[in-house]
Structures are given as structure tokens and as C-alpha cells.
Amino acid sequence: MTGSVVTLGETMALLSTPPWGRVTGGSALPVGIGGAESNVAIGLARLGVPCTWISRVGDDALGDLVVREVRAEGVRVLARRDPEAPTGLMLKELRGGAPRRVGYYRRGSAASLLSTSDIDERVVGAAAVVHLTGITPALGPGPREAIDRVVELARSAGALVSFDVNHRAALWSPAQASPVLARLAAAADVVFAGPEEAALLLGREPVDEPGFDLGEELARAVARTGPRTVVVKLGALGSLAFDGGRVHRAAAVPVTAVDPVGAGDAFVAGYLSGAVAGAAVPECLRLGNAAGAAVCAVPGDWEGFPTREELDAAPGRAEVVR
């Protein structure tokens, strides 16, 4: 399978507190951007995969920032500018230079008003892969209808539907999220989930001590609901995939984690870059683990996403290129 990837979702402006965490008068707060779907699009673009990101942003300075940054990474941007609603904002609180908590200020944002009218049906219909997350349907009824329409279009066009559960407890409760996320996962070809998210899809209690054996059990159970491939992200342990009746396990790439935010999106980008190229599942897992590790090693949600050359380099390579 070759071709482009289309994704849909909200990207917000991102403020980060000083490394010591406390905001005081005169504090300088670096401004960036972040959003699961655009993170994946940027990761894929850096790996040479053509990508389109569909969204809606405010007709404001933060909307300018979001569009400019995503487009600068080589991603095709189809984002309506909304004069009536603002671009969403999030605040990453640091302690000792490491992320401690992320707060969201997205109620009433432009992206929460996403609708089927924002979907370019020709673009979706021409994609090889459509990637979606569980964040978008949590934003409201309009985004939920939009994501359902994208799935319908992708199915009609024969595109592979990729779905990252990405449950955000700040947006909706497990009881609200579970049936919606389970329905979307069942309609997907490839599902990405952490152990807790896989348990949520199945209506089970939260996982206490996730590992490869439990991850395999959860992957098999989720696969019985519909998707051909279920990928379980196990963080520092690595990842596994249940695909076509077979289980594949891949150990994590050793790394000193500086900022784990965005590692899951990088994993998805790495995995899908392999899928688009027709790689076997074990190679897709390797690429996902390597990309996730690269992002963990530097601050930022997506800034550390590797290029193809960097991803193909030997893990742990210390040689300085002069």
C-alpha cells in the first residue's frame, strides 16, 4: 500500500511554564502548538509520507500560529478560519523541567465546532490511510458527526482506517466515552491503545500492572469486536500487535526520557509510515518504538520527531557528524 494519509482533529496553541513550574509576574511562557492528529501528521511528513490535516481554528493570532507551524512541517493544511470562535489553548506545567500536568482551555473553541461541512470528501476519498483519534468525538456532537462521516468516506474508498483511542478523562468520563470509542474502534482496521484504553473499550476495570501477557489478552479481545489489527502501546516495555491471528512483540528502544508527551503520537506516525510502505507488522512496531523513543528524548510534543535518516540510524548512535 502506498499513498497519502489524512487526519482530522483539534490543534491548540501550547504555553509552557518556566522549568521551576511557578508562573509569576513577568514570566516568559514559550508558545508552541500541540494536537494529537497534527502531531501524527508532522511525524509522517518528516518520514516522507504525504499528509493532510483537516481542522478548524480561530481567525486569531493563535490560529495563525497553528496553521503556520503545521504547514511549515510539510503538512497540507485544510483548516477553516472561524471568526466567531477562538483557537484552543493548553498550558503545560513543568516541575524541575519535566511535565507535571497539562491543562486545557478548549471549551467553545473553533475546533469544537467542527462539522461535516469542514470535510473535503475528495481529499478523504483519495487517501490510502485515514487516521483518527478518540479526542475528536469528545469535543461535541459536530466533531462526532464529522468523524463518523470521515469513516464512512474512507470505507467507501477502500482506505485503511486507523484509530488511536487516546482517551482524555478531562473531556468526558469513562462511562460517556466507552460506548463511543468502542464503536469507532470496531469500525477501524487498525486500533492503537494503551492497556487502560483497551480495557475501556471492553468495559473492563482499569488495568493495575500492564505487561506483554495482559496486553496480548486485551488485544485479542479488542480484535474480536472488529478491527483486523490491534496495537497495544506498553510504554517503557515496548509494544505488541495482534494481526490476522498472530501476535508480534517488540521491545522498547532504551532512552532517557526527558518529556514523554507526544511519544504515543510519534509511535503511531512511525507505525503508519511502515504500513503505508507495505512493511510487515514487526517492522511497523520497530519503527513505532524508535519514533516514540526519539520524541521522549527531547522536550516538546512533536519537536523531536525524527526524519527518515534519523529513524533508520542505529539506536544509541553516538557519533558526531562534522
From TrEMBL:
CDD domains in the record: KdgK
Domain Carbohydrate kinase PfkB, first and last residues per copy: 4-307
Pfam families: PfkB
Keywords: Kinase, Transferase
GO molecular function: kinase activity
Family: Belongs to the carbohydrate kinase PfkB family.
Protein name as it appears in the record: Sugar kinase
Source species: Saccharopolyspora rosea
Lineage: Bacteria, Bacillati, Actinomycetota, Actinomycetes, Pseudonocardiales
